[in-house]
Amino acid sequence: MIEEVLAAAAGAAAVFAVYAGAAARVVKQYERGVVFRFGRLRDDVRSPGFTMIVPFVDRLRKVNMQIVTMPVPAQEGITRDNVTVRVDAVVYFKVVDPADAVVRVEDYKFAVSQMAQTSLRSIIGKSDLDDLLSNREKLNQGLELMLDSPAMGWGVAIDRVEIKDVSLPETMKRSMARQAEADRERRARVINADAELQASKKLAEAAGVMSAEPAALQLRLLQTVMAVSAEKNSTLVLPIPVELLRFLERATPTGAAEVEQAAPAEQGQITAPLSEAYLKGRAAAEESVEDLTGTSVEPSPRESDR
To answer: pTM of the prediction?
Structure first.
């Protein structure tokens, strides 16, 4: 009798062990369990940890709740300004409602991937090339909104969308390089012109100061000579301004008188008066000529003529 009881207890324990093994499930921390009983969805979603289901009646499906990083294949399209580009992106999303992610869509990852590709092509057609290259933040936000609207019905939330790279044709790259070079050259010319304008204003102020003080021009010339001679050059080419010659002419009285005397007289005009030294020299020359020639003496008549 006791042996039969022990055998029955052992059999019951074995059956319970088999049942417990078939009913026991473990849900990880980053997962949630969705239970289907006879094909119908149970309202309760199993939380992480140890859980039990009815064997051969319930079916547990685990859903990953982690953020999924999905690269979007490169999409080729034509921008609004008729430029052919190739754009690829990456989508970050996660499941927020495990029941909807299992029931409402067959494969939520594939669905999000296809939606991301179509939305990316739509963004390319609505945007200009400059926006794709420099205004990506706005495009990322627009692409995220386009994906988030249908994804919410699938129990999926779009966390972030980023445009990774924009590939351009080689001809467009060369054109953009020439444009950038021309723009930099234009800015360089504007800067040089501005510098020349400022320098001309300063030079005009300096010229006004030097015109008031003629000696400043000579001092500046000497300073330039010193600066050039400091380089130990064997040959020095120094331009002499006309203003310096005029200054030296005014500074030398005798030189001014000689220049006035040497100036040729114009037709119908009397030359300028000669200097005192020149007049004295001329008078002395005339006296010496008279001493050499003497007074004129008539020859005496010949005796034969008498």
So the answer is: 0.57
What tens digit of pLDDT does each residue of 164-190 get?
Answer: 888 888 888 888 889 889 999 999 999
Beta bridge mates, 37: 40, 58
166 in Cβ contact with 176 (< 8 Å):
no
pLDDT, tens only, 272-298: 455 565 566 667 666 654 554 444 444
Q: What angle do CA 210, 215, 221 make, to 5 degrees?
A: 80
* 18 to 21, 22, 50, 55: CA distances (angstroms): 5, 6, 17, 10
pLDDT single digits (tens) 27-67: 899 999 999 988 888 888 888 988 888 888 888 899 999 99
d(CA 85, CA 89): 13
E-strand ranges in the chain read 24-27, 31-37, 40-46, 49-52, 58-64, 68-78, 84-95, 156-167
For CA atoms 197, 203, 208, 211, the dihedral sign is negative
Amino acid at position 5, single letter? V
H or E segment and range at residue 228: helix 214-229
